[in-house]
Specification:
338 residues; alpha+beta; Helix Hairpins; Heat Shock Protein 90; 5-stranded mixed sheet; 7 strands; elongated; histidine kinase
Length: 338
């Protein structure tokens, strides 16, 4: 900037000298020459001040931009948000962009911290879930290897090994399904399917368990009920809710499945006569690995309802629960009609 200003000043001086020389030679008037020189000096001084002003403004502008970028790098977003954006100047427009960029970076920073925290919790939960069956397997292995046991006892222990392995297998499969759904690796394909057949598919997985507990399952749904949904994954979601209903309900009770079409969605109610869920826990039961304390006598890892919610939400629906302790629960699944 200084070099440019010096060149401009030198150019004006040269032009002034040439002009004054012309006046002296042509008009031969010293008064006119003096006035001309004075005007040129004033003009040169004015140009100098103008250039200096522009130089100062440019310097202030670049310093402001540099400061804003440093604040962005140092994540000092509060300073960015206080920038002036109230006028139509170039700096105000750039400040608007800076604030928008700061908002995006702050959002991504908060999102990253949240995801990091969720990952830490997830790793801790998985570690806890895997630790118990692995510990049991080690104990069973030591017992089988180090002790002479009757054949019947060995068979009993081997069956226990099988149950622990099944629990690990179920945990890993559930985690893989959940991870694929969350990351979008699995795309749900909604087609117009028979909902009654989807419910029947879900029921096929719990029929034996329900019969062992002498439980009846009533389905109130038209056999010709058509609805756009992903049949495979919706059946999985329904199965998870139904399995819990059978597990945590007393023997000889009834489970009802009621389907009704509303104006914009279809509602699927699964009603049991189980232990019920305290109202303050309604929001927790859909969390990953959450289990009610009084349900610890039943096998489970607390991931079924979480997976169900993911599946239903991926289809544009939602799930909610209403429950009364000692009387039972109603899980309501809503799927959009269109």
């Amino acid at each position: 900037m200084n070099n440019k200003m010096n060149k401009q000043a030198l150019f004006l001086v040269v032009i002034t000298l040439l002009y004054n020389l012309f006046l002296l030679l042509y008009f031969k008037s010293f008064l006119l020459l003096i006035l001309s020189i004075l005007m040129c000096v004033i003009y040169i001084f004015y140009c100098y001040l103008s250039i200096k002003k522009v130089e100062n403004e440019v310097y202030a502008f670049t310093e402001s931009i540099n400061k804003s970028f440093n604040e962005l790098i140092n994540k000092e977003y509060a300073n960015i948000f206080s920038l002036n954006t109230m006028d139509e100047t170039l700096i105000a427009k750039i400040n608007q962009k800076m604030i928008r960029l700061a908002e995006i970076l702050e959002h991504e920073s908060v999102k990253g911290m949240k995801e990091k925290k969720e990952l830490q919790v997830l790793i801790s939960d998985i570690s806890h879930q895997v630790k118990t069956p692995l510990t049991n397997l080690k104990m069973l292995q030591c017992t089988l290897l180090e002790k002479e046991l009757p054949k019947e006892k060995r068979i009993e222990l081997l069956l226990s090994v099988g149950r622990q392995l099944n629990k690990l297998d179920f945990l890993l499969n559930s985690m893989i399904k959940t991870s694929r759904l969350e990351t979008g690796l699995i795309q749900l394909n909604k087609l117009e399917e028979n909902l009654f057949e989807t419910i029947a598919e879900a029921l096929s997985g719990i029929t034996i368990l329900a019969e062992k507990k002498n439980m009846n399952i009533l389905v109130k749904c038209s056999e010709e009920f058509l609805l756009k949904h992903d049949r495979k994954w919706t059946a999985e979601a329904l199965f998870n809710v139904l399995e819990n209903a059978v597990k945590y309900s007393p023997k000889g009770t009834v489970i009802e499945i009621q389907v009704s079409r509303w104006e914009i969605s279809t509602k699927i109610d699964i009603i049991d006569q189980g232990k019920g869920i305290p109202e303050e826990h309604h929001g927790k039961i859909f969390q990953r690995f959450y289990r009610e304390e009084y349900n610890n006598d039943e096998e489970g890892i607390g991931i079924g309802l979480y997976l169900t919610r993911e599946i239903i939400q991926k289809q544009g629906g939602y799930i909610k629960v209403s429950s009364t302790v000692s009387k039972g629960s109603t899980f309501s699944i809503f799927l959009p009609n269109n």
